[in-house]
Amino acid sequence: MFWILVVAVLVCIVLYALFIDVDPLDALPGPRRWPIIGCPFSFIGTAQEDIFDLILGFQKLYGYRYMVKVFSRRILHLYNVEDIEIILSHSRNIVKNKPYDFLKPWLGTGLLISTGTKWHQRRKILTPTFHFNILKNFTKVFEQKSRDLVQRLKQLPEEDVDILPIISDFTLYTICETAMGTQLDSDKSKSAVEYKRSIKEIGILVINRLTQFWLHSDIVFYRTALGKRFLERLNVVHSFADNVILERKQKKIKQENVKSNIADGDESRKKSALLDFLIEAESDGKINLEGIREEVNTFMFEGHDTSAMAITFGLMLLADHEEVQERIYEECKSIFGDSDRTPNWSDLAEMKYLEATIKEILRLYPSVPFIGRRITEDFMLDDIRVKKGTEVLVHIYDLHRREDIYPNPEAFIPERFLNGEVRHPYAFVPFSAGPRNCIGQRFAMLEMKCALSEICRSFKLAPKTKGYRPLITVDIVLRPVDPIMVKFIPR
Predict the structure, then answer these.
(1) Beta pairing class for 267-269 and 259-261
(2) H or E element at residue 393
(3) Does the predicted TM-score (pTM) go above 0.85?
(4) What stretch of H or E contains 126?
(5) End-to-end CA distance of the chain
(6) What is the pLDDT of residues 182-210, one digit of tens each?
(7) Of 311, 385, 306, 411, which is closest to residue 354 (Cα–Cα)?
(8) What is the pLDDT of residues 108-119, one digit of tens each?
(9) Helical ranges in 284-417 per DSSP H
(10) Sheet with 73-78, edge to edge strand ranges
(11) Quick one: DSSP state of residue 246?
(12) Tens-digit pLDDT profile for residues 294-321
């Protein structure tokens, strides 16, 4: 009797897969789909560091719109500017896809992960925290941390340096001070040291889980040594953040902030940290304590790893292109002369060539190479219906390398962003676009300007190997498989 039931269930599954589980997307090209299981054989046996190259090859095989099916999951992959605009500009299909679920224990449902009414409310609360008057205040932190970074680089032996760990510390210290008002680099307490270690380890643990499909189930993951370690690190991070929040609430920092005027004539307060703004929002009944923790942790995640990757790849490209370095140096000389003063807000605005260089860095190496959505409302893509439950993957990395949009796409040419060429507004989206674009993109651009200008004013950069480009792997952000080595030669 048991075996009869087993056979009956298998027959039902096969019939469902063959005759009932049909979708308009099944007409699209893609890797071979086997009955019931779909395409997993296209990926099995591929090393993690090779998966990115495998995915890049699919576009050449299947074009700018293809579909991957894994059991019941259908994942639509898009490279066309017009298709990408439809996805990113949609006002209701804003739910992030599965990989972001693994960040929820850390970030909760803050701005990065939340959806629906909660997302709209949080976006409304947080948008003023990135007003230019507040960013001007943060610029002082960027400047100081950039100077500290240069001093650290000067203390290193004059040899090739693995730059990612150093830059990762820089972005972590910067976002910690701007988000929470805590100077992690000067705080030598046990809790601060453990927090720094835990922030970095959580990222690695999330990556390990993401790349091992058998750990995707919570029931399995939290019974493994990896899952138990994740919970330990999570407790350290949450405890540290909670203590900082409570301390700043007790000190009533918001009363000590300096008043300033914003563009519409209303009064605002310059915040010494993003946390101060959230505490004020709590006193106005706009957010609760759990919400403050969610957003502080979200700022820490989004403002650390993504910026570290962008600056790291940027230094690699600058080291390989001496002429670009020199143009940045000459631009800085025209602004500062022989002075060694730190840049102010207007100085940073004058750095047009550096800004174009940063855009070209982000074109070639967008920190987030894919944007994923889980569709909650059917919509049309030309004559194809994309149904609720479908996952969509927007390929930013490949979009930025389309030769019809960017001639000689593999070349590092900052002048692309200085010549006034008009492109489709969705042809360059390193910070996403549409209603769910990155709220902190101006913050990131200012941080990168401060760091790269300070480095180029102080050093000439040289690559370990001319023309070196690392193998790329990807989890939630773009990463080099091997170390990126740069030599810093004092000017």
Answers:
(1) antiparallel
(2) strand 391-395
(3) yes
(4) helix 116-126
(5) 82
(6) 888 888 788 888 988 888 888 888 878 87
(7) 311
(8) 999 999 988 999
(9) 289-302, 305-320, 322-336, 345-350, 352-364, 396-399
(10) 65-70, 73-78, 391-395, 370-374
(11) H
(12) 999 999 888 889 999 999 999 999 999 9
Give the integer Cα–Cα distance in Å for 400 and 397: 5
Chain mean position to CA 54: 22
**pLDDT value at 400 more than 50:** yes
Residue 265 has pLDDT above 50, yes or no: no
Residues 94 and 115 sit within 8 Å (Cβ to Cβ): yes
Q: Which two tokens stand for residue 263?
A: 């563009």
Burial class of residue 48, CB neighbours in 10 A (0-12, 13-18, 19+): middle
Compute the distance between CA of residue 222 and CA of residue 229 in angstroms, rounded to an integer.
9
Which backbone phi and psi does 296 adopt, to 5 degrees? -65, -45
352, 369, 413, 62: CA torsion to nearest 10: -140
Contact 163, 312 (CB under 8 A): yes
- Amino acid symbol at 474: V
With tokens 């941390």, the residue in question is: 145
Percent of the chain with pLDDT over 90: 59
Cα-based angle 473, 479, 484 (whole degrees, multiple of 5): 115
C-alpha to C-alpha distance for 244 and 301, rounded to whole angstroms: 17
Query: Could you give the CA distance from residue 424 to residue 226 in angstroms, rounded to a whole number?
Result: 44
Q: What is the mean pLDDT of residues 54-72?
A: 89
CB 178 within 8 A of CB 446: no
Q: At what angle do helices 132-154 and 441-458 cross, to 10 degrees?
A: 30
CB 83 within 8 A of CB 381: yes
Q: Which element (helix H / strand E) includes 192?
A: helix 190-210
Helix (H) or strand (E) holding 193: helix 190-210
